[in-house]
Each structure stands twice: as structure tokens, then as C-alpha cells.
Write a structure and sequence with these properties.
Distance between the termini: 6 Å
Helix content: 10-25%
Largest sheet: 5 strands, mixed
Number of strands: 5
Shape: elongated
Strand content: over 45%
Strand order of the largest sheet: 1-2-3-5-4
Number of helices: 2
Order of helices and strands: HEEEHEE
Length: 103
């Protein structure tokens, strides 16, 4: 799965999506989604990388917890295994819901 295909999945939620950071004009409109490739998990065989998986973080930012909005993201990610973590960013007064996937 490519970063472009991940964008396509997330764009289907009708929530603004950007790679790595949110453009300043969209930062005030919530909810919004940022995604980025955080690292790679490599499987080695005979001293070389046999297979490599991207570790992608998909971050949903909302002013309040909203199960409907979270369900849109989870439905978009239905064909990949994901884990979910929720944080409240005190300095910005927003929720950051992080979905980590490997593709």
C-alpha cells in the first residue's frame, strides 16, 4: 500500500487530510486528519532486507470525542490492522486520536 493509496482511503471520510502537518488555513477547522510514515519494520533473511513494512500514524484531531467521526476513520482503515490511542492535548485543547498501521 502506498502513501497515495492511504490518502485516498482517508479522503473518503470527507474530513480534511494532509500529509505530516495541517496547512495553517485548515488548522482551525476540526476535525482534521494528518498522516505520516514514522518508520519501517524490516524482516531480514540472509543478511538482507527481505521484506519491509511502513509504520504509518494516522492522527485525527477533534475538539470533542465523537464516535461518528472516529467510526469514519476506522471504516476507511477496515482492510488494515490498526491500533488506537487517545490523548488530550492540553495546550491546544483538542483530542488527538492516533491510529497506527503497518503496510
Amino acid at each position: 500500500m502506498t502513501l497515495a493509496s492511504i490518502y485516498t482511503l482517508l479522503a473518503g471520510t470527507n474530513i480534511p487530510v494532509s500529509y505530516s502537518s495541517v496547512p495553517m488555513d485548515e488548522a482551525t477547522a476540526k476535525p482534521y486528519i494528518c498522516y505520516s510514515e514514522d518508520s519501517r519494520n524490516n524482516f531480514a533473511a540472509d543478511g538482507i532486507v527481505f521484506y519491509s513494512q511502513k509504520v504509518i500514524s494516522v492522527k485525527l484531531y477533534t475538539e470533542t470525542r465523537d464516535e461518528t467521526t472516529e467510526a469514519k476513520v476506522e471504516t476507511a482503515l477496515k482492510d488494515v490492522f490498526w491500533t488506537k490511542a487517545v490523548d488530550f492535548l492540553d495546550d491546544q485543547k483538542i483530542y488527538e486520536i492516533t491510529y497506527e498501521i503497518e503496510v
